[in-house]
Automatic annotation (TrEMBL):
The lineage of its organism: Bacteria, Bacillati, Actinomycetota, Actinomycetes, Streptosporangiales. This is Zinc-binding dehydrogenase. Residues 9-305 form the Enoyl reductase (ER) domain. Residues 1-24 are annotated as: Disordered. InterPro entries: ADH-like_N (IPR013154), ER (IPR020843), GroES-like_sf (IPR011032), NAD(P)-bd_dom_sf (IPR036291), Zn-ADH-like_protein (IPR051397). It comes from Nonomuraea ferruginea.
Amino acid sequence: MRALITDPAAPGGLRLGETPDPVPAPDEALVRVTATSLNHGEASLARQGAPAGAVLGWDAAGVVVRPAGDGSSPPAGTPVITLGMAGAWAEQRAVHTGMMGTVPEGADPGAISTIPVAGLSALRALRRLGPVLGRRVLITGATGGVGRYAVQLARLAGAHVIASTGDPAAHGDTLRALGADEVLAGPENVDEPVHGVLDMVGGHHLVAAYDRLAPGGTLVAVGRVTGEGESFPYPMLSGDRGHDRSIVSFYLPGESGLGPDLTWLAAKVAAGVLTPQIAWRGPLDKAAEAIDALLGRRLHGKAVLDIA
């Protein structure tokens, strides 16, 4: 089968080539991939750290070619959305049935492929905050793939949504259209305490966002795009600055029971309730171009590769 293969000698560290078809385990289905979307983490891995000859890729939409041998997958011919730690940048992938959801007939595979990492991370992180109806929720890094889904889902959940972005003038209208009530240039500009924070950035942004938490509030640390550590100045963690405030770490591969959430998110995207905000779309052999734009912070939204 055709696949994007890591190759340190190739331009951009990737080349389009042939690789053996995957062999599914009994609890895996074989899926023909029709579209895949890119994430910052796997794009970084493609440029540094991935062994030669690997087929990367986390997110993919496609169609079941061979059902799982243990009977736990949808039947052949079913459109599906899939998540895995590798294998999406290819014409076929073997997927554990617990990391797969079904997709409405006729849905755009490119739009569906944006869901697994970005949509699931936003949904599962938002649930860590508990009920948010009528409560103030701050989302940092709101212009990224996870951030845009988080803005929409928080609005659907009834929150007053505050979106933090480095350039409100450029992205304010888009974020408001997605459901943001306020768009600010950094968490330090939040004027009143918030019940919850979904932080996609890390570093000093996380510290500033934590400082805006109301007593009993929770910050979910989802992303680390700055590469910075966090330093909390004295006495930010003292009780008189806000009692019982929590920081919760988040790691999507450690989550379980993802199939029903993938199916739910796919239905919402297919119905137009959620919009994936695709910023770049092209064929598999243009992946290096998309990765350059993604790592260079020139993409605000998702990049999609169509696989014929």
